[in-house]
Amino acid sequence: MATLNVQDYGAVGDGNSDDTAAINDAIADAGTGDTVLIPATADDYLVSTDNRAAVDFTGVADDVTITGEGPGSSLKMGDVTDGNNQWVIGAEADKGSLSGVTVRQLTLDGSREVNGNESTMGFNLYPGGGGHDIRMEDVVLENCAGTGLAIRGAGSVTLRRITSRARKST
User: Fold this and answer.
1) 129, 128, 111: which is closest to 120 by C-alpha?
2) Separation CA 149–CA 122 (nearest Å)
3) Which residues, 6 or more positions from 86, have their beta carbon under 8 angstroms from its beta carbon?
4) Cα dist. 137→1, 3, 30 in Å?
């Protein structure tokens, strides 16, 4: 079991650089039981998408943990004002079972100040699939124009200490 640090893949977390590819590469490289670490930084990890999920864990190995280090580990959606339903982090739930995936100690920011009332979400599994086993712990969903959290077709979802709010607290 290894820890894959997204900074080793080129993510910088400076709020300006697009860290999407680096974070997704670390997740794609994770094997069964591995941890993908998104270290705390002074600014956000900027993520973007032209599809559905900016940070996409579709097809991730079993028992992978995607973790931050608390409030300083923030994934913030870039400009997606094209009106598509887009997510900071999520998976295409009909592409196979997700077993033992844990997402924890992260802030997922839909960047409403940039994206307006477009349908950005913090976390989503879509469309309905089945047999998934997912845990979310100590996650903050904020500034999402659409739903902060949406899960469809999961066999088991455990939520612990999840906060959804309109704006960052200052």
Assistant:
1) 111
2) 6
3) 49, 51, 52, 53, 54, 77, 80, 118, 119, 120, 121
4) 20, 18, 20
Cβ partners under 8 Å of residue 59, min gap 6? 91, 95, 96
Question: Any bridge partners for residue 17, and if so which?
Answer: none
Tell me the whole-structure pTM to 2 decimals. Answer: 0.91
Identity of the residue numbered 41: T
Task: Report DSSP letters for 77-128, one per residue.
Answer: E---TT---EEEEEEETTSS--EEEEEEEEEEE--HHHHTTS-EEEEEEES-
Cα separation, 74 vs 108, in Å, equals: 6
Task: Kindly state the average pLDDT of the residues 63-69.
Answer: 97
pLDDT interval class at 128 (50, 70, 90): low
Residue from 101, 109, 31, 110 nearest 67 by CA: 101
Main-chain phi, psi angles of 9, to 5 degrees = -100, 0
The token pair at 142 is 């904020």
What DSSP state is assigned to residue 61?
A: P
